Amino acid sequence: MISKALKQARDFETEYLPYAESEQPRFHVTGGIGWINDPNGFSSYKGEYHLFFQYYPYETKWGPMHWGHVKTTDFIRWEKLPAAMAPDQPYDKDGCFSGSAIELPDGKQMLIYTGVRAVRQHDGRMENVQTQCVAIGDGQDYVKYEGNPILSAKDLPEGGDPVDFRDPKVWKEGDVYYLVAGNRCSDGSGTILLYESTDCFHWTYNGILSACHNQYGRMWECPDFFPLDGKHVLLVSPQEMNAIGLEFHPGNGTVCLIGSYNRSKFHLDRENVQAIDYGLDFYAPQTLETADGRRIMIAWMQNWETSGCRNEQLRFMGQMTVPRELHVKNGRLYQNPVRELEAYRGTKISYRNVLVCGETTLAGIGGRVMDLTVTVRPSSRENIYQRFRMNVAKDGQWFTSIRYKPSVGTIRVDRTHSGFPHDIVSVREFPVSQNRETGELKLRILMDRYSMELFVNDGEYAASFVLYTPESADAVSFETSGVVMLDVEKYDLVFDEK
Ligand code: FRU
């Protein structure tokens, strides 16, 4: 038996999804119809990878949160499944907020999420009470546990705030389950709480894995914690960040804390703190581990700061990033598109050692659904250029520019001319390093109908951007001040024949 609210969401999907089919990106997940935000429950289950997401099917703006659902075997081609959960219980009547999923020993799939209910306070204001809840299912239909919530105010450490207690991420080590969740402590800023359990239903509080201390934003949302390449990595999405140099920008940001895990103190000893993605549209990333041991991350390719500005023509709002393979190298987080994407590469066009001075285009280099890699280097040791700029999604009116200045070592992406009908923030600049010996800078650009994702120097920096540029604007041009030498390799990405 499914609830009235869930049935209504599923019926709505059946009736209206077909109308939005032709509008979809080619390889990025959306809700099909309606609004999505954070990825949830990104996990493997019975040999397939499942992805749920924060979802409001009825409008292209945030509303009472449901969980939408898709699955895949290769991270590129996704199958839409019916909505998985609706806010239909007293403890989640105001939303099924973010969470995660895990396969249980009996073969069932457990969803762990934040149940939200608004409660009137003594001063008359309404405030959310957030608790952690579970639902059990078979990969398509889920039943909420009668013992919900499984974690509530009584499970918080002293000073912990039940209003901001959310986004549980679960994993298993040997026979023990662990879970991290975001909370706010008495200094008003975020903490990541760690819990353990032997059955996933009954949890014991371990301690604070990491605390914000008002240094990187305030509340920390959507934590994820995992071992990688000999280190431990904590991903968080802080609210109310202050800018720090070009590393962190104001507002909702994403932060990666890399260090070693002190198991006896349940504490992450930090060694490096960096932004996860340097673009304008990236938030709430979540990871899974594949059967062959790869750590894959997916994120909401949007940010709360700009999410009010939508393309009114489209019947969906919000996309996920391309799933990315993660590594830690030289203390930094590296990310590259999943290797499965390469199976969708079509015609290749490539150039080597092209000398560029001034503005030029290259025959065959263009497109809006493509995988393009450009390697830029000085034409000689003595001949250092001042500026390199590329424009993509370009025609007479539109362009999105990527500019690199070797003297300051920054990339600046500008999407002012990328189809947005509002004056939202459109420029982001971030520090990068070129190869010290060769002076080379490598840019890999993934384009889909409504996005551009940039991967610099084999994944050392990533930057994601939503674009609403009309699809007819598909040219690519190169511009320099000084002389550069370019290698260019372009593949169309082809999805129809499979
Ligand atoms: C992050 C977030 C989560 C919350 C969800 C609600 O984007 O604010 O903390 O669970 O979105 O949709």
Describe the structure.
The protein is mainly β. It has two domains: 4-340, Glycosyl hydrolase domain, family 43 (Tachylectin-2, Chain A, 5 Propeller); 341-493, Jelly Rolls, CATH 2.60.120. The protein has one helix at 4-20, and strands spanning 34-45, 48-56, 66-72, 78-85, 96-103, 109-120, 126-137, 142-144, 165-173, 176-184, 190-197, 204-211, 220-228, 231-238, 255-262, 267-275, 283-289, 295-300, 316-317, 324-329, 332-337, 345-360, 370-378, 387-394, 399-405, 410-417, 427-431, 441-448, 451-456, 461-466, 475-493. The strands form six sheets. Strands 22, 23, 24, 25, 26, 27, 28, 29, 30 and 31 form a ten-stranded antiparallel beta sheet that branches. A five-stranded mixed beta sheet has the order 4-3-2-1-19, with helices on one face. Beta-D-fructofuranose (FRU) binds at residues 37-38, 54, 65, 97-98, 114, 166-167, 221-222, 283-284.
- Radius of gyration, CA atoms, in whole angstroms: 23 Å
Sheet of most strands: 10 strands, antiparallel
User: Averaged pLDDT, please?
Assistant: 96
Helical amount: under 10%
Shape: globular
Poorly predicted residue ranges: none
Kindly list the characteristics that best describe this protein.
498 residues; mainly beta; Tachylectin-2, Chain A; Jelly Rolls; 2 domains; ten-stranded antiparallel β-sheet; five-stranded mixed β-sheet; 1 helix; 52% strand; globular; binds beta-D-fructofuranose
